[in-house]
């Protein structure tokens, strides 16, 4: 069996969307609600707790984040955006174009050399790093068996 991998991918990301204040909990809007996703979110929460950062969970159930995107838009429009939000691929640039995403250049100094070019293109906007890739989902992988062709 041969695997063909196309370069277009969809990313699962958390990114900063407002200024943080040290004493406030980190409000994280995401849709990691399946058992495995929940374990990943809990792992991140635990790592942040080690650095004395309180994670306030705003998990919105629903496939592909449709409900979470509605919640994100309403919170931004009401002036109460989460500190961190999960976005997928091209949506990162859409939010960055609106000027609603902080640049993470100082934290991402060596990322470009560590990430696949396609991933790097999704987390970079106008030569600034604007997102943190926490997982990569491929939706366009083709598997085939040469013996059956």
Layout of strands and helices, then pairs:
Layout lengths: L1 E4 L4 E7 L9 E5 L4 H16 L4 E5 L6 H12 L6 E4 L3 H7 L13 H4 L2 H7 E2 L2 E2 L2 E6 L3 E4 L5
Parallel strand pairs: 3-4, 3-5
Antiparallel strand pairs: 1-9, 2-5, 2-8, 6-7
Brief account:
By secondary structure, this protein is α/β, with parallel strands linked by helices.
Distance N terminus to C terminus?
11 Å
* Widest β-sheet, arrangement of strands: 4-3-5-2-8
Which range does the strand content fall in?
25-35%
Determine the fraction of residues in helical runs and give it as a percent range: 25-40%
Number of strands: 9
Helices and strands: which structural class?
A: alpha/beta
What is the CA-based Rg, rounded? Answer: 17 Å
Q: On the 0-100 scale, what is the average pLDDT? A: 81
H/E order of the elements?
A: EEEHEHEHHHEEEE
Low-confidence stretches: 1-19
Main sheet: strands, sense, barrel: 5 strands, mixed
Shape: globular
Figure out the total of helices.
Answer: 5
Oligomer: single chain
Characterization of the model:
The chain has 149 residues and is of the alpha/beta class. It is built from five helices and nine strands. The strands form three sheets. Strands 4-3-5-2-8 form a five-stranded mixed beta sheet, with helices on both faces. A two-stranded antiparallel ribbon has the order 1-9. The longest helix has 16 residues, at 35-50. The protein is globular, with a radius of gyration of 17 Å.
Name its key features.
single chain, 149 residues, alpha/beta, five-stranded mixed sheet, two-stranded antiparallel sheet, 5 helices, 9 strands, 31% helix, globular, disordered N terminus
